[in-house]
Specification:
The protein is built from 13 helices and 17 strands. The chain is of the alpha/beta class. It folds into 2 domains: 168 residues, Aspartate Aminotransferase, domain 1, CATH 3.90.1150.10; 258 residues, Type I PLP-dependent aspartate aminotransferase-like (Major domain) (Aspartate Aminotransferase, domain 2, 3-Layer(aba) Sandwich), CATH 3.40.640.10. The strands form 4 sheets. A 7-stranded mixed β-sheet has the order 6-12-11-10-9-7-8, with helices on both faces. Strands 3-4-5-15 form a 4-stranded mixed β-sheet. A 4-stranded antiparallel β-sheet has the order 13-14-17-16, with helices on one face. Helix 4 packs parallel to helix 10. The protein is globular. The termini are far apart. The structure holds ligand PLZ. Ligand PLZ binds next to helix 5.
Length: 458
């Protein structure tokens, strides 16, 4: 019999990585040091690089970010789903310190090193499906998405790419074309890459609850009519959409699309840049419905904050690109690889997939209760620690971006970092690090509840 060990995540741990696990405001936000730094930022950094909170970070750990004025904020953003294993997670710090002292860079294409190979092995093991796989490493999510398209085109000798309504795939030229939303991602930045076609998504809250099979049929009919399977290299989809609004397609949608791709020799690509690595309460969001993508794109949570991304998939597809056709100076940098191996070890050893499921239960319980009292919360959705609420004008389904902005701003002012998203700017999203304790989560939700009450029929 094992003794019951109290889980520190449930018991209000007082300090993680030297950071007190509490919300504590010692100045107004932003404080004087942040204001000073913001003025320097405005004078030195290009205006196109925005910030959500005008608060400069000093350190972070567990579920808390400490700013340069000593304010302790509850982090429900994880740097957009990146610090899944926590900020400055001990295994990552140790692994990176060891690597940085050994060597910082050789370029894997010049003289390789084992960290890169070990990350590829880990990805091949962890991603859905037990077929033979290969991986290639890059720096950013967008770069990996671009490479997945290059690989699919090399394999199929076809050109077209299908993406979906509300999709987000990045800010490079090809991925801007693949991204749906104009402002701020595309506006004024065209012309965009050609041969990218958009299909309707399954969006249960806004498509009358169309079942997954019917929604897939609708998308496939449009693809067959407007593109033609014989011209189509790849279908690229986020199994749970990120920037588009945490839209989770109806059950059956993803499997039906994947099956159609298989029947038609089209490469089915899951963009799991945001949804991957334990975030949704499974190692990958594709796992929830047993979908086995031909290629899977990962980044963000893969390396706890060091820049790393990957394409992993069927060996015969991955190997279609000629030698020297894939790469880049920094892709699979040794520091990032050391961090990735430590992040993967942390997810597995600390049971973070299960922790994401606990976070889902807690958040959906609280947000569901709030929705029952407040008809401005049109929908509560998402999986694991990737949860969102879609805000509408009370009692309608009309998006309310102004309310969403106001709620986020009020939460920020009270020391809770929340992010917004959605094509209509009316989705509040929550992406806590999986190492956040229950007490902090509950407190953040208390703050949100108070914010909704204070903004009542204003
Ligand atoms: N695919 C599904 O979520 C990045 C972008 C934030 P990069 N999402 C956050 C912003 O405003 O730039 C993302 C994603 C999905 C691809 C990407 C792109 O990943 O690492 O930002 O290039």
């Amino acid at each position: 019999m094992t003794a019951t060990v109290e889980n520190p995540l449930h018991s209000g741990t007082t300090s993680v990585e030297g950071v007190a696990q509490e919300r504590r405001l010692v100045t107004e936000l932003p404080g004087p040091r942040s204001v000073e730094l913001m003025a320097r930022k405005q004078a030195a950094v290009a205006a196109g690089v925005g910030t959500t909170l005008p608060v400069f970070a000093a350190r972070a750990g567990g579920g808390v970010l400490v700013d340069v004025d000593g304010n302790h904020l509850i982090d429900l953003g994880s740097g957009i789903a990146v610090t899944t294993v926590g900020n400055a997670a001990p295994r990552i710090v140790a692994a990176v310190q060891e690597q940085v002292a050994a060597f910082t860079h050789t370029c894997f294409m010049v003289t390789p090193y084992d960290g890169y190979v070990a990350v590829a092995e880990a990805l091949n093991r962890l991603t859905p499906g037990d077929h033979e796989k290969r991986s290639a490493l890059f720096n950013s999510g967008a770069e990996a998405v671009e490479n997945a398209v290059k690989i699919a085109r090399a394999h199929t000798k076809r050109q077209a790419v299908v993406v979906f309504d509300h999709a987000y795939h990045g800010r490079t030229n090809l991925t801007m074309a693949m991204t749906a939303k104009n402002m701020p991602y595309k506006h004024g930045f065209g012309p965009f890459a050609s041969e990218v076609y958009r299909a309707p998504l399954s969006y249960p809250y806004r498509d009358g609850g169309l079942d997954g099979a019917t929604a897939a049929r609708r998308a496939i009919t449009q693809i067959e009519a407007q593109v033609g399977a014989d011209n189509l290299a790849a279908v690229v989809i986020e199994p749970v959409q990120g920037e588009g609004g945490f839209i989770t397609p109806a059950e059956g949608f993803l499997p039906a699309l994947a099956a159609w791709c298989r029947e038609n020799g089209v490469v089915f690509v899951a963009d799991e840049v945001q949804s991957g690595f334990a975030r949704t309460g499974a190692m990958f969001a594709s796992d929830h419905e047993g979908v086995v993508p031909d290629l899977i794109v990962t980044a963000k949570g893969i390396a706890g904050g060091l820049p790393l991304s990957a394409v992993t998939g069927r060996a015969e597809i991955m190997d279609a690109a000629h030698a020297g056709g894939l790469g880049g100076t920094y892709g699979g940098n040794p520091l990032a690889c050391a961090a990735a191996l430590a992040a993967i070890e942390t997810i597995e050893a600390d049971g973070l997939v299960a922790r994401a499921q606990e976070i889902e239960a807690l958040m959906k319980r609280r947000l569901g209760a709030l929705q029952e009292r407040d008809s401005r919360i049109g929908d509560v959705r998402g999986r694991g620690a990737m949860i969102a609420v879609e805000l509408v004008k009370a009692g309608t389904d009309e998006p309310d971006p102004a309310l969403t902005k106001a709620v986020a701003a009020a939460a920020h002012a009270q020391g809770v970092i929340v992010l917004t998203c959605g094509t209509y700017g009316n989705v509040l999203r929550f992406l806590p690090p999986l190492v956040i304790g229950d007490a902090l989560l509950e407190e953040a939700l208390d703050v949100l509840e108070g914010v909704f009450a204070s903004l009542a029929s204003a």
